[in-house]
Structure formats: structure tokens, C-alpha cells
Amino acid sequence: MSQLLPVLALAVFVIVFGSVLIWFSNLIAERAKPDAVKGETYECGLPADYSGPTKIPIKFYLTAILFILFDIEIIFMYPWALTYGDFIAEGYGLYIFAAMFFFLSVFIFGLFWELKSKALEWE
Amino acid sequence: MGSDIFEISVNFVKLIAIFLLMVQIVPLLVWVERRGSAYIQNRFGPNRVGPLGLTQLLADAVKFLTKEAFVPSRGYPFIYYIAPIVAMIPAALALAAIPLSMPIKIEPFQWLGETWGPYTFLFQGYNFGIGIVFVLGVSSLAAYALLLAGYGSNNKYSLYGALRASAQTISYELAMGLSIVGVILLFNSFDFLEIIKGQEAPLHFMFLGRKIELSAWLPNWGIFYQPLGAVLLFAAMFAEANRLPFDLPEAEGELVAGYHTEYSGFKFNMFFIGEYGHMFVASALMVTFYFGGYSLYPFLTSENASQVVQPVAQLLGFNSTNAYNVMGALLLHLVFMAKVVLFLWIFIWVRWTLPRFRYDQLMDLGWRTMLPWALFNTCLTAVVILIMRHPWGS
Amino acid sequence: MLWEAIGFYSLALFLIFFACQTLMATNPIHSALYLVLTMIGLAGVFFNLGAHFIAGVQMIVYAGAVMVLFVMVLMLFDLKAEVRAFSRGLISGGLKVTAAAFLLGITIGSIRHSQLAAVDQPAEALPIRDFTRELGVLLYTKYLFAFEALGVLLLVVAVGVVAVSRMKGGTHAKH
Lengths: 123, 394, 175
Fold this sequence. Notes:
Number of helices of chain A: 3
Radius of gyration of chain A: 26 Å
Number of strands of chain A: 0
Largest sheet of chain C: none
Oligomer: heterotrimer
Largest sheet of chain A: none
Helix content of chain A: 55-70%
Structural class of chain A: mainly alpha
Order of helices and strands of chain C: HHHHHHH
Number of helices of chain C: 7
Distance between the termini of chain C: 68 Å
Number of strands of chain C: 0
Radius of gyration of chain C: 21 Å
Strand content of chain A: under 5%
Helix content of chain C: over 70%
Distance between the termini of chain A: 50 Å
């Protein structure tokens, strides 16, 4: 807990700092009279249109899912990078290299397959 | 956080000081940005309020504070208010994990009739030994501020801006995470202090197990081993901080002002603090990974800083080892800040030099150019390290 | 020791609170946002246990990637009709109760069968070790096969995602 405490303290401080600033500026700022037109969202001056669902290209979801997959692969390379020197120093250089070579080649194959399949192409 | 009341309070004050350092650099950077852009574009820039327009910042602050409080009537007030606060948290937490100078060793001393110490104060908010992973983990939360802002204001343009911004942030996070792998391979550590310690030496490399020193004068900076990684990381950082040429989320011509269309006053300013905080963290990471951190090898390192400041300290009337250590750390902090300011200037310089990308170009650059190159950099580093340390086994 | 316990229990209480809110919030976006807080709290628990790297992974992968996807998807779909269909009605209510009872049964069963309570507390605090390095060494020696299999599995998922996104039909079908 003692290690987590400074992080929590800082996060709480930032939240308090931000809240106090917003509260203070709301306090001294001019009050807006509630007004139907004023409260509308700004959509370039046209009357805002709230009807109908928002349609979003599926590319965004695809990007997010592929991001998760590649992110996991990259995370698995972190302990490898950390212990690579230790493995080499103890004489297992070729072993750790081969172990990672397989993983990396799967990664590279996946990445280039994605690029080739034009899944990540935006028009 | 510490063993006695003195250590705890120093550590706590330190945390807040680092956060305030991040906050106070925003008005200064805004000023530099305006004057710098005017200089680059051959204009005058704001020069009316005070000398060189410096007090313009105060005028801005007053204006921000007195702006009309506005909440879109269709929005979700709680989420709308919480988004700018969330925008400040990732940068603040990440910055506190980066060492801004060497740890200060304090020997036992007498104060208020009691003996205090010895202490070792880190010149950073906290140190976990997994510094890099912590910074990556915390800054991956940055996408939420954008999404909350877009959703909270319930505006189509805000939502599209938030969507673009988060897609962009996550795409470039891959290249960012992968280009750091080279640095970890090189220094075999997640700890910023150890990475900096590894750079406080003359430039050398191992060749078939023998140590070859290239030059006694060049420092052992990461940039000499990882030039490609440095370029990729810096470019990815631009996208992470939503700066031009990657500021698609706020492309005025298409999306009004993106996710902060409905924000004004101090709430808007907090998004600014978040953005500049990300720039600060990015510059600090670049300096720590590739440019020796707070050390300036042949002249100033964490070993000799206390001796270097000794004459100056004596001139000022300080004669204790503790004072030397503190002043040495402050000197190294100045070195660090000088390097960081250089990178911050590059951020501003690029903003006023390059035009904005198109969205497809942006995604292409992230996925089809930077990610493969970062992968290439990692493989190359691994192979070279394997060959260079050939007779494996000590 | 007392402070450690207080810290742990307050963290655990927060976690349970966020988890309950995740289940009980009627707005799916609020529910997802509470889940984000739960994930961050879970990272805090891992951190507290000394598994710093795992905590970092929890933040990067779950809080920073998976939940971003969830929140993004929920924010951009208009889910009003689906929410109404899911949060009202006898059948979905019955399903919820059944699922909760099932989960409770599994939890109680696993606690009853586990040997956790029998583990003796070490008399002294364990020496601080570099768990991340140990994790790396174990991952690339003892669990090497699982590690490589995971690489292949991720590749399969990536291919599957692209295939699904190419399916004919839906709003983006090419005519």
C-alpha cells in the first residue's frame, strides 16, 4: 500500500485541483440565462438535428480490435527485452533468440497479412 | 511514503510541486507558441500587454476564469464536467514517475532539537522500478478524456472528433510501445534511473564480447544506438499529444473544434493543460531514453555534480554536504529542463512548419509505415546485440 | 501492518462498489465506465501485491485497450431500444437471477475447495525480489510453449476479425 499511496495522493490532488478550479470559475463567472437556443449544441449554426442514429464506419472498431491484439503481442515483448541481456550473459543467447524469433515471425506475418488484406486502408 | 514526518511531508510536497511544474509550464508554452509562431511566420504576435506580451498570460487567465459557465442542455452534465479533469490525470501521473534530477542524499542533521535522517530523496514523485510500463499504462488512459468529452457534450461533431482522436491515439500507441522495446533491450531495465545511469559513460560497445571504447568525450547516449527508434518514438508522441501535423481530432474545417467544441473557460484550459502535459512527458521521455536524462556526461554526472557546485555554494555561504547535494541536484535539474525545453521548442516548430495530414494518410503512417519500421528496429537491435555479445556466458 | 490492512480493505471495498455499479447501472455507458474504474482498481490490487508488471499490463491491456473499445462501441451505437429490451421483462430478469446464482455457486464452490486458507503466513516479510525478471525467465523457459501458442492464437483472432468485418450484409454491404 505504501507504494501505491503517492499515486493515489497525486490523483486525488489533481481531481480536487480541477474541481475547485471549475467550481471557482462557475462562481465568479457570469451566469448564463437558460435559453432553449443557447443551450443547443453548436453544429455550425444549423439547427441541431438529434434524430436518427449515428452511423460510424466499421473501420473504427476494426482498428480498435486490431490494436488490442497487437498491443498484447507488444506487451509480451517487454519481459523478453528485460531478460534478453541476462539470457545472453548466461550463455542462452541463441535459445532466447530462437524463442522470440518464432513469436516475432508470427507477429510480422500477422501484421503484413493485415496490411495486404487492406483491412487497414482508409479511403 | 516515508519513515517519519519530515520524509513524508517532503515527499508529499514534492508530488504537488511536480504537478504544479506541469501546470505552470502551460502559460509559458502558450506564450512561446504565440511568439514563436509569429516569429516563424514573420508576424509580431501578441506584444501589447506588458513587456514582450508576457502579461498576456495573466489576462488570459482572468478571461478563462470569468467566462460564462455553459453546459449544453442536451449533454450529460456530470460527464461533461468530469472530462477536463480526467484529461489532466494521465499526464500528471506519468510525469511524476520520470526522474527530473539525481536522487538527493541527505546526511543526518539537527533541526528543532532532534536528529533527522539520513534520507535519500528521489527527484521524482515515485519510483517503482517498472517506470516505463507505468508511464505507458497511465498514458493509455488518455483516450478516456476525449471519449468522455465527446459523449458528455452530446454533439455529433464532438463525438466524431472524440472517435477520431481515440482511434488515432490507440494506433500510435503501438508504434510508441514497440519503439521503446529497443531501449529496454539496450539497457535491460524498466527503471528510468538505471537507464540514465547506463548513459553516464563514454560511448562504448561490445564487440564479440570485448568492450571497445569509441571516444572518451562522446557520452553513451541512446540516440547513438537507437536513432530510428528515437525518430519513431518522437513522431508517435506527436500523435499521442494530438499536436499538428496529427491534430485531426480538432480539424476546424471539418469538425468545428473536435471533442472540445462545447467547452469554454477553465474547462477548455484543462484540456490544454493535458495536451501540454503530454508534450512535457513526451519530451522528458525522449531526453531520458535517448539524450542522457539529467546527466551531461563528460562534464556533469550524478557522481560529480555535488563537487562541481561546491565553489558556488561556498560563495553563497553554504558549507555542508547536504547543501552541496541539494545544489548539485538542482544543477542537474536545470540540465534536464534545458534538454526538455529544446524538445518542446521542436514541438512548436513542427506545428508551424508542417501542414495537417489527411485522415487516411494519418492511419497509413501509423499502421503501414511506423509499425513495420518499429518492428524492424526491434529485430535489428536484437540481432546486433546477439552478435556483439557473442561469446555468451561470462 | 495495520495501515496495510486498512489500505487493502478500502481498495477492495471500492472495487466491489464499482463492480456492483457496473452491474446495476441502467445506462450501458455508465456501466462500461464503472467497469473501467474496476479495471484500474484491479491494477491497484496487483500493484499492492507486488506484481508491478502485471499491474502495468492490466492498465495497458484492459483499462487502456479493451475498455476503450467497449466505451467507443457503446458511445457510437444508439442502444436505446436494445437497452429497453434487455433491462425490462420477465425473461431477461429470470436470466439475470439465474446467472447471478450460478456465479455465486461457482464462487462458493471454489472457495470451499481451495486450500488458500491453509497457507501459512511467512513469519517475516519476503525479501524484495525482481518479480518482473523472474516472470520473464519463467515465461520464456517453462511456459515457452504456451507463449508461442498465444502468438498463433492472436494471429488467428486477427484473421477472424478481418473476416467478420468483411461479411456481406449489415449497414456497410456493398451493392
